[in-house]
Task: structure prediction
Amino acid sequence: MVYKNIICPVCGGSCDDVQVDLDTENRTIDVQNACKMGNAKFQEVVSSHRILKPTIRENGKVKDVSWEEALEMAADILVNARRPLFFLGSETSCEAQEVGLHIAEYLGAPADSNATICHGPTVMGIQESGMVGATAGQAKNRADMTVYWGVNALESMPRHMSKYGVFPRGYWTKRGRFDRTMVTVDPRVTPTAVASDLHLQLNPSSDYELLSAMFTILNGKEPHPSVEEITGIPISVMKQTVEMMKEANFVAMYVGLGVSSSYGKHRNIEIALNFVKEMNNYTKCNIGALRGHCNVAGFNQLASYLYGYPFGLDFMKGYPRYNPGETTTVDLLREKDVDAAFIMSADLVNHIPADAAKYLADIPMICLDIAPCPSTTAADVVLPGVIDAMECDGTFYRLDNVPVYFEPFTDSPFPETKSNEDTLKQLFAKVKAKKEA
Ligand code: SF4
Result:
């Protein structure tokens, strides 16, 4: 059967035009409109390596158990730990993340999500200086200049250029690519850089200096000549770029981990945001982050409106605290400041430094996921995950922080649970019952 307008749950693009032809008898799925990354995830619905049974590790051996046994053991681990870590990954809905945050609050535990290892510095930069933002639709319809800074959009969010950023025909950009100037700022010659009209190939980790020099030029001053050697970009090219931006009608600037995770971190983002604010004295200019996972923005929004902080929360004192470098996942693991972990919809072991991953593998760990990965291999309890936007409904926040409600085209394969939110509610009930007993 064919289903239309399905939302892709892979990257922050949250493409909402995917067409799926699901053959339940032959267990095949044909996907139209999604990119390769999206297609691969849709294939998980029928894949043979999907996690379909809960498992626990007993005396070093992994064995299949009933849903009830796995939940019991997971609840025991969480209740008996002095300080369990909740890593509420972004490949699931805000509704599931919300229940996870409530369990962490109930147990007085730290709770974190993917931003801690990706766009955390972006969020911190926004807290410092505020952000001039725009929806993806505004950029599509208005932007006649697109700047990708420290991001290889063609490979990290493959449909961004065709759906929002460069190629689509908008209301004021009727000729699509021909009505847009595209600039890439990246130390590497990426496919995005090759497709650009202008590539500023700056020296690695000199984003702050380049932004600072362009900010100086924007204010009508001459940057210090040493900036040419530091950044590798001639001042004349910096001036040309600033002039192009001033002359555009609407500039859409996108930053990636190349800015937020190079030297300077959130200070890079802060100066980029201030540069964009200043640019609005001359033309309309906005900035946004290209987020690699579908609901990174969702956790930031949810945690901020529920508890006041976007990631790296700690409920140990009975109220939420936030101190990146202390209450964030890698720091908690490096300091051996947690003694158990609950990981949902994220392969955390694969994404953190080796010493932190080793400690994580040494402590009791519960994983909720859809497919085997290093984290599920190291886990003591594995709970099968339900695939959001395919098998259950819920909400994601898109890259531009717009909430997107998604509906499923098939059912959860598990009679015991309808969604990850449902699984977490069951776990919360068990944790409460054990704690209160
Ligand atoms: S660009 Fe992102 S959201 Fe769109 S189809 Fe590809 S992986 Fe899915």
